[in-house]
Amino acid sequence: MAFNGTAEAGNAMDALYSGTDFSSLNWTEQKWVAWYVWWGNPVIATGMISFLMHEIVYFGRSLPWIIIDAIPYFQKWKLQPNKIPTPQEQWDCTKQVLWAHLTVELPAIWLFYPMAEFVGMKTYQVPFPSLSTMSWQIFFFMFFEDLFHWAAHRALHTPLLYKYVHKIHHKYSAPFGLAAEYAHPAEVMILGMGTLGGSLFLCLFTEVHFISFFIWVIVKLFQAIDAHSGYDFPWSLQHILPFWSGAEHHDFHHMAFTNNYSTSFRWWDRIFGTDDKYLVYRERVQAVKAKATSKEEFLKAEQALMDEVLAEGLKAENAVEERSKRKAKVQ
């Protein structure tokens, strides 16, 4: 195992890994040790690997959707096929996302280490927990974040929070991959608490390693970007796991302005009845499909339904903004 040969690296090795049996570590654990020793400071090392991972995964996972949007063949799986994002929209979205990453997520990443250390989370330590331990912990993080997101997302649709915060995210009634984190910095901070909170909370009851959280964030980025992709393929995960939300579930939220507030799973919307309009819409689509005598007739009728839902969504959005204005006048 190769390390930086400086005296600082040697000091870091002694300070962080004194007494560690390196021969018992697997390849990933050895690279983890090498990273922390090379930086020599766990705060910087944790911050750097977190930020680099986030940027690489976010824009790397968004790139295939940018390519797919540019290829007409894939439009038959596009949920709103008449709304393909333009290159200018993609670029404008990228600039806003980068701004939020630099102004909110980057500072939050640097603050994460002291918070994690305070609640007892392991960071630089090796070996890693077992795969079974990481698996159930990651599922807990997903469960926690999904419930938090459902509640926070509903709150973001209240008049004041919508007008001054969440409205930015609803700029696109037909979302696309890059738009997953297209949001006001305050929204990024609010919803980010759900992503971070589950791991910090679980530390109060059991041992948690940063690697579990690290993998969870990668999973979360894939989920968020795919949910905003605007495509529903026959092999999409929601067709394998009926309780998975996916793009088809979240696309309706952007189109209708309401319903479907959760992220990973459908069950909170079902339990609390915040998918009622969505369920009616799906029933109407199935009825139109059964009645249509040709694919062209079905697509035309489906587009008419989408136009109707979008018009109703714009009315609902305007009503929320009007309530915000009235409250502002009263105050």
Task: Please explain how this structure is put together.
With 331 residues, the protein is mainly α. The protein has one domain (26-72, 85-231, 240-330). Helix content is 67%, strand content 0%. The protein contains 12 helices and no strands. The protein has helices at 7-17, 27-39, 42-69, 87-118, 131-156, 159-164, 185-202, 210-227, 246-256, 267-272, 276-291, 295-330. The chain starts with 6 loop residues before the first helix and ends with a helix.
Provide the descriptors you would attach to this structure in a database record.
single chain, 331 residues, mainly alpha, globular, disordered N terminus
* Residue share in helix: 55-70%
**Main beta sheet strand tally, sense and closure:** none
Average pLDDT confidence is 92
The quaternary organization reads as single chain
Distance between the termini: 65 Å
Query: Outline, from the CA principal axes?
Result: globular
Report the sheet-strand fraction: under 5%
- If helices are DSSP runs of H or I spanning 4 or more residues, what is the number of helices? 12
As residue ranges, the low-confidence spans are: 1-5
Q: Structural class, from secondary structure content?
A: mainly alpha
Describe the structure in brief.
The chain has 331 residues and is mainly alpha-helical. The protein is built from twelve helices and no strands.
